[in-house]
């Protein structure tokens, strides 16, 4: 079975529809066909301002949402990054293989640092830690959204370079990006990706939103002055985004939906989409609450996951340490 690894940051109280359709749905689907490791990446989360108590709780809420979405600790390895210290150990090694120029070209760093008053070195080296996350597990495939493609490319470059310099050490990972849902757009500003840092509170649909809130957000989603439900990402970016979301959630195609809504207006279309969204997400919110009700059990599941992950991580670290001339960790 191919090895799969992917991570998500515990940087909000709820994941959003972009996270879900761009990545998390694939995580669930890949559990049985692959040997999958999924990680709540709290080390990444401190690269921007954070409150320690909030971060700790958000890591739990994140894990609970992942379980609610259908990740099964019997069928995949689910863990929190800070419980596996090898991530930081490998990141240090890879940082010394990364050129300042190539790190400086990362667009996510440029975008995020431009929005902050104070930028940290951690935010700059974020993609190197991400490469370490992936390479640590000899990963074949990484299910992510399109916004992570450039970081994946860096991971591939670093793996290839290390292998050339020191001899074969890492598997060179491939991105696994589903075309139709590679970038879910903001509902209010459909030229931007949906993101928790959206300027408009109605632009980002959270998995744990109340159904009423979801409905309001979808009803107020930006469309255009025309009235036909037609896919055209240039002229009708808003409608096209809603069509993509609808098709993905209802397991149908954009073409079929265009046919179904021919001659009907945006009102009917948005109303039906709101139903589909609420039907899909309401049970996830309910299950998340259930998993959060027993925190001791949740923590136990995560620690067991970390132990499993660590068993693999130490093997890669032993190899990499030897290759660069370090003493073995004791
Ligand atoms: N809009 C999106 N469409 C498709 N995929 C997306 N992902 C994120 N946004 C979209 C994918 O979700 C996974 C987790 O990414 P992350 O840990 O970077 O999550 P995030 O920080 O919550 O993402 P945001 O909202 O985009 O954060 P900010 O606002 O900080 O920039 C990844 O696989 C990502 O591709």
UniProtKB/TrEMBL annotation:
<dbReference type="Pfam" id="PF00579">
    <property type="entry name" value="tRNA-synt_1b"/>
</dbReference>
<feature type="binding site">
    <location>
        <begin position="193"/>
        <end position="197"/>
    </location>
    <ligand>
        <name>ATP</name>
    </ligand>
</feature>
<feature type="binding site">
    <location>
        <position position="133"/>
    </location>
    <ligand>
        <name>L-tryptophan</name>
    </ligand>
</feature>
<dbReference type="GO" id="GO:0006436">
    <property type="term" value="P:tryptophanyl-tRNA aminoacylation"/>
</dbReference>
<keyword id="KW-0030">Aminoacyl-tRNA synthetase</keyword>
<dbReference type="InterPro" id="IPR014729">
    <property type="entry name" value="Rossmann-like_a/b/a_fold"/>
</dbReference>
<dbReference type="InterPro" id="IPR002305">
    <property type="entry name" value="aa-tRNA-synth_Ic"/>
</dbReference>
<dbReference type="GO" id="GO:0005524">
    <property type="term" value="F:ATP binding"/>
</dbReference>
<feature type="binding site">
    <location>
        <begin position="145"/>
        <end position="147"/>
    </location>
    <ligand>
        <name>ATP</name>
    </ligand>
</feature>
<keyword id="KW-0547">Nucleotide-binding</keyword>
<protein>
    <recommendedName>
        <fullName>Tryptophan--tRNA ligase</fullName>
        <ecNumber>6.1.1.2</ecNumber>
    </recommendedName>
</protein>
<keyword id="KW-0963">Cytoplasm</keyword>
<feature type="short sequence motif" description="'KMSKS' region">
    <location>
        <begin position="193"/>
        <end position="197"/>
    </location>
</feature>
<keyword id="KW-0436">Ligase</keyword>
<dbReference type="InterPro" id="IPR002306">
    <property type="entry name" value="Trp-tRNA-ligase"/>
</dbReference>
<feature type="binding site">
    <location>
        <begin position="18"/>
        <end position="19"/>
    </location>
    <ligand>
        <name>ATP</name>
    </ligand>
</feature>
<keyword id="KW-0648">Protein biosynthesis</keyword>
<dbReference type="InterPro" id="IPR001412">
    <property type="entry name" value="aa-tRNA-synth_I_CS"/>
</dbReference>
<dbReference type="InterPro" id="IPR050203">
    <property type="entry name" value="Trp-tRNA_synthetase"/>
</dbReference>
<dbReference type="GO" id="GO:0004830">
    <property type="term" value="F:tryptophan-tRNA ligase activity"/>
</dbReference>
<dbReference type="InterPro" id="IPR024109">
    <property type="entry name" value="Trp-tRNA-ligase_bac-type"/>
</dbReference>
<dbReference type="GO" id="GO:0005829">
    <property type="term" value="C:cytosol"/>
</dbReference>
<comment type="similarity">
    <text>Belongs to the class-I aminoacyl-tRNA synthetase family.</text>
</comment>
<feature type="binding site">
    <location>
        <position position="184"/>
    </location>
    <ligand>
        <name>ATP</name>
    </ligand>
</feature>
<feature type="binding site">
    <location>
        <begin position="9"/>
        <end position="11"/>
    </location>
    <ligand>
        <name>ATP</name>
    </ligand>
</feature>
<keyword id="KW-0067">ATP-binding</keyword>
<comment type="subunit">
    <text>Homodimer.</text>
</comment>
<comment type="function">
    <text>Catalyzes the attachment of tryptophan to tRNA(Trp).</text>
</comment>
């Amino acid at each position: 079975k191919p090895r799969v690894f992917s991570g998500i940051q515990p940087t909000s109280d709820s994941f959003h529809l972009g996270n879900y359709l761009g990545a998390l749905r694939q995580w669930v689907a890949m559990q049985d066909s692959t040997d999958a490791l999924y990680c709540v990446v709290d080390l990444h989360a401190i690269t921007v301002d954070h409150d320690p108590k909030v971060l700790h709780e958000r890591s739990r809420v994140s894990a609970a949402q992942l379980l609610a979405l259908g990740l099964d600790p019997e069928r995949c390895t689910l863990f929190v990054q800070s419980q596996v210290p090898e991530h930081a150990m490998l990141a240090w090694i890879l940082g010394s293989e990364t050129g300042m120029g190539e790190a400086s070209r990362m667009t996510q760093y440029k975008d995020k640092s431009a929005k902050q008053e104070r930028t940290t070195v951690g935010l700059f080296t974020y993609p190197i830690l991400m490469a370490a996350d992936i390479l640590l597990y000899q990963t074949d495939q990484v299910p992510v959204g399109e916004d992570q493609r450039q970081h994946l490319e860096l991971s591939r470059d670093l793996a290839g370079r290390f292998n050339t310099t020191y001899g074969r050490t890492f598997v060179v990972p491939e991105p696994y990006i589903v075309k139709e849902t590679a970038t879910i757009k903001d509902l209010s500003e459909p030229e931007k990706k949906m993101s928790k840092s959206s300027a408009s509170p109605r632009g980002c649909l959270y998995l744990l939103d109340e159904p009423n809130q979801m409905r309001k957000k979808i009803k107020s989603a930006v469309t255009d002055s025309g009235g036909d439900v037609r896919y055209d990402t240039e002229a009708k970016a808003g409608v096209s985004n809603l069509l993509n979301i609808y098709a993905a959630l209802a397991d149908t195609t954009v073409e079929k939906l265009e046919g179904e809504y021919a001659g009907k207006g945006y009102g009917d279309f948005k109303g039906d989409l709101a139903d589909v969204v609420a039907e899909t997400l309401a049970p996830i919110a309910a299950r998340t609450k259930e998993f959060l009700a027993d925190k001791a059990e949740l923590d136990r599941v995560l620690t067991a996951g970390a132990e499993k992950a660590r068993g693999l991580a130490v093997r890669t670290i032993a190899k990499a340490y030897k290759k660069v001339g370090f003493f073995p960790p004791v």
